Amino acid sequence: MSRIFETPLYPYARSPDQDAKGPVRRPVAVVGAGPVGLAAAIDLVQHGVPVVVLDENDKVSWGSRAICFAKRPLEILDRLGCGDPMVDKGVVWNQGKVFFRDRQVYAFDLLPESGHKRPAFINLQQYHFEKFLVDRVRALQAEGRPIELRGGSKVVVIRRQDDGVQLTVDTPDGPYRLDCDWLIACDGAGSPIRTMLGLDFVGRIFEDNFLIADVVMEDSPDFPVERRFWFDPPFNPGQSALLHKQPDHVWRIDLQLGWDIDKREEAKPEKVIPRLKAFLGEDAKFEIEWISIYTFQCRRMPKFRHGRVIFAGDAAHQVSPFGARGANSGLQDTDNLAWKLALVLSGRAPDSLLDSYDAERIHGADENILNSTRSTDFITPKSEASRLFRDAVLDLSEHFPAFRPMVNSGRLSVPCTYDGSPLNGPDHPAMPARTRPGAPAVDAPIPGGWLIDRLGGGFQLLTVDADAPDRLDADGIPVTRLALSTAADDGLLAERWLGAARSAVYLIRPDQHVAARWERYDEGEVLAAVAKATGRA
Amino acid sequence: MADLVTTPNIAGADDFYADLIAAHQGLTKAESDALNARLILILANHVGDRTALAQAIVAAKNAGRN
Questions:
Q1: What does the pLDDT read at residue A1?
Q2: Domain assignment of residue B1, yes or no
Q3: Of A131, A157, A519, B40, which alpha carbon lies 20 to 30 A from A38's?
């Protein structure tokens, strides 16, 4: 069987840039064609910015890797034009069980809030995810959009200048020079760009190894679609284990191995298969699709923006896998970056707007690092006292619901609210906290569809039971109005967007985050808020 | 947001103390430690107030210093 991650998707092809007389200059080069790099490129080209993606490989990622995608990234993917295939293919799940030693201590149902287009999570292999993004790139190319994906193209030299970046790209035909105004580095946790520039990546290393095995079980009635997590199970004493369903009868198994192991030895099938049988049962019929042994770190770069080089995703920050905060936060990075870079490139916002990318996404990274560090400390206690309390929480949670919120097998990714951002404008105290300035738009059903589908791409005024002009020019930046009324509403729009206010006017950013809000429209106030949200004030 | 109570607050303090010691009778060191951990968590949940809990942690740490 030929697997999707073994087939070249964007094989090397000679580019006219290689035969040009002098170095060709591009507005933006993205290094890395993983989920984050591809999302960055699609977002930029949708904002009208020509973009070249360089990757030393030519295939989607090897093995399933990231498998859990949260609601906010799915909304971002909708804006990028590829949410549907992801959600159609993905496995939607809400239920989970927690086990301690030989027994189940409790089961949970995430009971997703109603009135949202997208589910709380889907499970989807990273290779499918990347394939759908590549499909989207191909569709944009077919429309004639300037987006290029160059496989077999490895950046070997990078030179930073005040007004751009000079690259040397190695290919099967030899190296060539490529210059760009801006470079976005999405080249993963081991980022060669970061290393070539000698930039710091500091944080905490966790001394532990985990075995990931993705197994195909065609017939698996004993394992329903739910997340199962074991603390100190009989089949992996003193360690943890995770079982989660992916599409195509693939199951993710994650077994903690401890620190003092021989990694190469543990990855051999003769070692892995008995472990899996102890877990799945002696008679379980399975086929191994992918095996990996990993260790992890929680760390980030002190700054993500370095002049004309901007880091996103794992290249900028790294977390433990517990909580699915890696790829999910990388997509929020590019969501934040693309519109800002497009405004700067078109001369409608100052270069300093990009410093707000640092402020907002470092805030996001710190939130993710904090959550993922806490999960890791609960899953693998680092001291005797820590283990004592961890076990006490698990014992108590079997008998009393009070302690279940303390059980931490990963706090799953929730959208980041940019509280305190320099781009935030006025707030209104009577309106709901969840739609405050800095927050991502909260979806709600509206006549003919979903609110989230009507937002994003440019600046918008969302009015609820309020008057405002349909169109506004904010010093070269168009602002369009989306007028909604609570007259035909079933209560969700009012609950999520009005609160105790009688009417509301929201300024929404191109990334669907709230910039400012008022009870009534005031042109001066709105223009000032647009100026603030674009770094012009 | 209530302050931590640090003045006598348990009627029949001797009886409570006797109950606490009796609960540990016959337990190994490991069992006693686990009981204490469960007890702390149960009491913390009952208190609920984060201010009082934070003050309790500080008070317990400080009282252990010479």
A1: 44
A2: no
A3: A157
